[in-house]
Amino acid sequence: MRPFFLHDALLDLFFPRRRCIACGGAKDVRDGLCAACESQFLPPPEPFCPICGEMVFEPGLCKRCKLAQPSYAAARVAVRYQGAARSLLLAMKFHGEFDLPTRHFARRLLAVLQREGWAVDAVVSVPAARHTLRRRGYNQAERLARRLAGEAGLPFLPSVLSKRRGMRSQVGLGAAQRSANLKNAVSPGPRIRQVVGKTVLLVDDIMTTGSTVESCAHALRAAGARAVYVLCAARRFRHARPQKAETPDPDDLPEAQK
Length: 258
Ligand SMILES: [Zn+2]
Ligand SMILES: [Zn+2]
Fold this sequence. Notes:
Elements: H1 3-14, E1 29-30, E2 33-34, H2 35-38, H3 63-67, E3 74-80, H4 83-95, H5 99-116, E4 122-125, H6 130-136, H7 140-152, E5 161-163, H8 175-185, E6 186-188, E7 199-207, H9 211-222, E8 227-235
Helix pairs in contact: 5-7, 8-9
Bound molecules: zinc ion (ZN) (2 copies).
């Protein structure tokens, strides 16, 4: 039923991890994370917009969802993008470290999925641009989505979407340019027909403005998906009180500084 747990339990039995994967410390390490780092995984701030999950100051829809409803039914994240959660996601994204990060985040995302009670038929992931795939050799969002699908007992549908190129920044674009930019960023993949009539769970690692998941959801709905729900491992909440000094998003940095 849950092959990953058995596999992980066996690995831990024979090769116990003595150091924390996030900080390298050796104090109170359980399941690859020390107690201090584990305590840095914080849930999203409340109240949040019932559609996109962005923090709001009064209960109800956020400004953006009031103006235009997204293509997805709802989006939620497991934790805030900061502290040890950020370290784990960066280890996954830039260093190809998957075992522990996907295990930790898949468990948290499964808990969110169960709490929300979304009845989904299948799991898909946000695609990586071809040049990124060539450079890194993996798509961390897909690794996370596959693991979550395995633990949720849901099918994972590969190659449903593809990313044309690095999306232009939305900053400074007018409404028409914005929507053209979004539509150009993600296109149907070779197996898009698999989503027809299905309620799909779209998975990504880090949610920033929400424009990537919106363009994916738009492509899925346009291809005939009945509904799209979104789960992301972490999100940066710009107005939430930061626990630490703000650090720039790695996607906004030139390659050399990552
Ligand atoms: Zn630690
Ligand atoms: Zn919203």
